């Protein structure tokens, strides 16, 4: 068995409170997200996908670091940062992060981050305002319990009251004298929960507690599934979205409220973008070739005839759909569902056609169930 000290590039990359426990439970490889290690290999990624959609998996997602904004002007400041719920854009309308917001109290909020340094952004914005706020990273490290059996496992862990927790709601529980924040959220497109530990010294104990309760019910240790998140058209920041893309290009219009009286950073730019329209937009593609060996590790050019019209940002083979599915950013002028594009993959050049997003469960009935 490998030891935790066998992994790493030094102390500059942080380890989560669950790091040792994940290795003990079979983690074989890690990547870096928000300056922290995240388990990315518990064996066969296809089996991890089937564990997720048929049973349940427990994932260390401590890399979803929290930015706490508290104080008398916390609500006003959060509104300044975000379009609506809760895209964070810069002054040009470029997307800086697409986090989840937890309102812990009227004067206390957590922003649960994708992979970018919003703590520094928020602190920098605050310096140039008169808002009375305190902005810092709290001791909060989430686990994801996701999959159709997650609700039954949560009942065993926390009791029947968990059944009242609605989609995108949260509640505080006590465990071993420690406060845990539990939310009906998760990055999986499946029914699931996130459990935020607020004492980093208890990571192994909490991981083992949940696994030992859930294992007889089908729970497996796992990692976030690229297959399932692409099926659900969930964005991965730095891949499908970044500072050079805006919410309208990503089809996130519903999360932008530029007609309200509220001011926020990027509002003027987004009004102009809506008025003038966008030149590129995100689409779903099916790539017509043998199953891809794994997710793409570079952006693949998309061509219409001999002209490059965009790029594939995320691609994977779905064993459930038996198709190679991809998210792509294409020129608006090139969009045509009746034609075949050509995608230049790492395995060769193959035809592809546009399909509606998401690829599976378009009404999100699973996550809302």
**CATH architecture classification of the largest domain:** 2-Layer Sandwich
SSE string, helices as H and strands as E: HEEHEEHEEEEHEEHEEEHEHHEEEEEEH
Rg measurement, Å: 21 Å
Mean pLDDT: 95
Shape: globular
Query: What's the β-strand tally?
Result: 20
Query: Would you tell me which CATH topology of the largest domain applies?
Result: Gyrase A, domain 2
Plain-language structure description:
It contains nine helices and 20 strands. It is an alpha+beta fold and 369 residues long. It has three domains: 153 residues, Probable tRNA modification gtpase trme, domain 1 (Gyrase A, domain 2); 94 residues, 2-Layer Sandwich (Alpha-Beta Plaits), CATH 3.30.70; 91 residues, Aminomethyltransferase beta-barrel domains (Elongation Factor Tu (Ef-tu), domain 3, Beta Barrel). It has a six-stranded mixed beta sheet with strand order 11-12-13-10-3-14, sandwiched between helices. A hairpin with an 8-residue loop joins strand 12 and strand 13. The two termini are 39 Å apart. The model has no long low-confidence stretch (mean pLDDT 95).
